[in-house]
Amino acid sequence: MDQDVGSLKAQLKEKEKEVAALRARLAQMEKSRASVPELHSDVAPLTPLTAKAALSNEDIMRYSRQLLLPELGVQGQLNLSGTSVLVVGCGGLGCPLAQYLAAAGIGRLGLLDYDEVELSNLHRQVLHGEENQGQAKALSASRAVRRLNSTVDCVPYHLQLSPENALELIQQYPPEANLPCRRLGHLDFPDPMYDIVADCSDNVPTRYLVNDACVLSGKPLVSASALRMEGQLTVYNYGGGPCYRCLYPTPPPPETVTNCSDGGVLGVVPGIMGCFQALEVLKIASGRGCAAARVAPGDMADNSPGGLFSAFDLNQAPPASCGQQLLMFDGQDARFRSIRLRPKQPGCAACGEKPSVTGLIDYEAFCGSAATDKCQKLNLLSKDQRITAQDYKSILDNTEPHILLDVRPRVEVDICHLPFSLNIPLSSLEERKSEHLRLLQGRISQLKQEMAAERRPAVYVICKQGNDSQKAVQVLEKLSGSEVDAITVKDVCGGLMAWAKNIDPTFPQY
Amino acid sequence: MAAPVGVHLEFGGGAELLFNGVKEHQVTLPSQSDPWDMKQLLVWIRRNLLKERPELFVQGDTVRPGILVLINDADWELMGELEYQLEDQDNIVFISTLHGG
């Protein structure tokens, strides 16, 4: 009896071990399934993507509402399934674009972004959720897309597009090879890695890089941008139309470029533009853009391989409605406007008759700015013209008489400010607005009464991150002793964000 | 003598911020011996509308890189750029290119 009990206990223990091992295996498998798709941190060759030969019953049900459109139809849907699209940037434009392309049944989506999800992204980058903060955007976006449509092949790239990797990423064959003309159902050439590129980036160097890579590899480029309440969209390098450089041969001076983290953007505006990008991509990918609708019914019967819808022969491509056209959206006035653009320019450095851009170059040097929309740190002042947030804290602690001048625009001061600061926006100082100079002079006179007469009143200038404050110091030094009484002026290095980070963690960051 | 020319000017994409945030301006160019062209219009804008930091709008005798000019809803490259002769009631748009996303 005792022996039986002992043996049973031993058996039970064994079984429990087995169950635990099975549980662990299951958990492991579930975990790895959840983390599919795998995140790529470099460019790896992909398996060729082939268009479906026929739609399954599930496909027919899933896509039925768009299959009913003569503008798409079964052939258009099959073409979508054989198209791969590279989305450069998984932000405010890339999120809605990827979402609609996946929903519509695109074959493959390359989702590229070097950045991680932050709280300040969520108002516009709608594929990412609160729980994705800190995650690679490419991975977060591709998980969201897979939840929506698991049949789409998502390839997340957690990397910065660069002159070194761009061509390898977009194409698998050398640029001098003939452009493969997509044949329905079969391929005469190895499948190119990506058929269409969507520029959803947020900075000037990347826009030139993506353009040149598309020209060199012969890919249509569906490009959109957004800032504040406005958006712009053009399809480049398609249907014999112009490329980005035909329009903008010279990059804008860096000081004229505003990014979303400085200028702000209403989330729905890139949302609208990203959706428009999806529309243009779908028209090109389906091979049944506006030209297809104009084809006589008799011609539509031509469904021989490579017949009517050789979507990727760039010279014979049906014109996308935004090729050689600029679509502008003004969200303030709720107005769209479509502008006829110049044709492909014979003298263009990239796509002209004698191109000087025969390989990718250093775009940060070409544009004089970094390939990021993160704020760049200016260094306009010498060390003795600047104090740290810690230094300023000591000045406060020692109750040294001074003026704290906040030079941010009113709209930012409304978000947060230090209670004892005087607000005069940098633009008012630059324009020497008399009412603001009077205000400053008033405070200087007041300060002079509180302190020993022989000392110059101290003015400390602060802004968000310590760039505008440096410009303001330069302006104030010119005003000092002429338009206002002589002052000693310094700026707070790193601005209010340094104050929030190093001195007062309860102060809001934005 | 050419008669005064009334033109509608628009600034967008952030270019309006150089004009006190005002997007639309209806202006009358005074009568002069030669017809008004785009080159002269840029000089006129610089003298009469642009208050601060002209380098953010013009460079040499043309607009700075990154500003697209539209004449009656067409790229000015199609219309002769600086040589285009203005007609009464023309609509001229200056759009700063956006790069954000």
Automatic annotation (TrEMBL), chain A:
One of its GO terms (biological process) is Mo-molybdopterin cofactor biosynthetic process. Zn(2+) binds at C243, C246, C348, C351. It catalyses: [molybdopterin-synthase sulfur-carrier protein]-C-terminal Gly-Gly-AMP + S-sulfanyl-L-cysteinyl-[cysteine desulfurase] + AH2 = [molybdopterin-synthase sulfur-carrier protein]-C-terminal-Gly-aminoethanethioate + L-cysteinyl-[cysteine desulfurase] + A + AMP + 2 H(+); [molybdopterin-synthase sulfur-carrier protein]-C-terminal Gly-Gly + ATP + H(+) = [molybdopterin-synthase sulfur-carrier protein]-C-terminal Gly-Gly-AMP + diphosphate. InterPro entries: MOCS3/Uba4, Rhodanese-like_dom, Rhodanese-like_dom_sf, ThiF/MoeB/HesA, ThiF_NAD_FAD-bd, Ubiquitin-activating_enz. Pathway: Cofactor biosynthesis; molybdopterin biosynthesis; tRNA modification; 5-methoxycarbonylmethyl-2-thiouridine-tRNA biosynthesis. Binds 1 zinc ion per subunit. Residues 5-32 form a coiled coil. Disulfide bonds join C367-C375. The active site is at C260 (glycyl thioester intermediate), C463 (cysteine persulfide intermediate). GO terms for cellular component: cytosol. Keywords: ATP-binding, Coiled coil, Cytoplasm, Disulfide bond, Metal-binding, Molybdenum cofactor biosynthesis, Multifunctional enzyme, Nucleotide-binding, Transferase, tRNA processing, Zinc. PROSITE patterns: RHODANESE_3 (PS50206). Residues 398-508 form the Rhodanese domain. CDD domains: RHOD_ThiF, ThiF_MoeB_HesA_family. Its main location: cytoplasm. In the N-terminal section; belongs to the HesA/MoeB/ThiF family. UBA4 subfamily. This is Adenylyltransferase and sulfurtransferase MOCS3. It comes from Menidia menidia.
From TrEMBL, chain B:
One of its GO terms (biological process) is protein urmylation. The keyword tRNA processing applies. Pathway: tRNA modification; 5-methoxycarbonylmethyl-2-thiouridine-tRNA biosynthesis. C-terminal thiocarboxylation occurs in 2 steps, it is first acyl-adenylated (-COAMP) via the hesA/moeB/thiF part of MOCS3, then thiocarboxylated (-COSH) via the rhodanese domain of MOCS3. Keywords: Cytoplasm, Isopeptide bond, tRNA processing, Ubl conjugation pathway. It is found in: Cytoplasm. There is a cross-link at G101 (Glycyl lysine isopeptide (Gly-Lys) (interchain with K-? in acceptor proteins)). GO terms for cellular component: cytosol. Acts as a sulfur carrier required for 2-thiolation of mcm(5)S(2)U at tRNA wobble positions of cytosolic tRNA(Lys), tRNA(Glu) and tRNA(Gln). Serves as sulfur donor in tRNA 2-thiolation reaction by being thiocarboxylated (-COSH) at its C-terminus by MOCS3. The sulfur is then transferred to tRNA to form 2-thiolation of mcm(5)S(2)U. Also acts as a ubiquitin-like protein (UBL) that is covalently conjugated via an isopeptide bond to lysine residues of target proteins. Belongs to the URM1 family. This is Ubiquitin-related modifier 1. It comes from Menidia menidia.
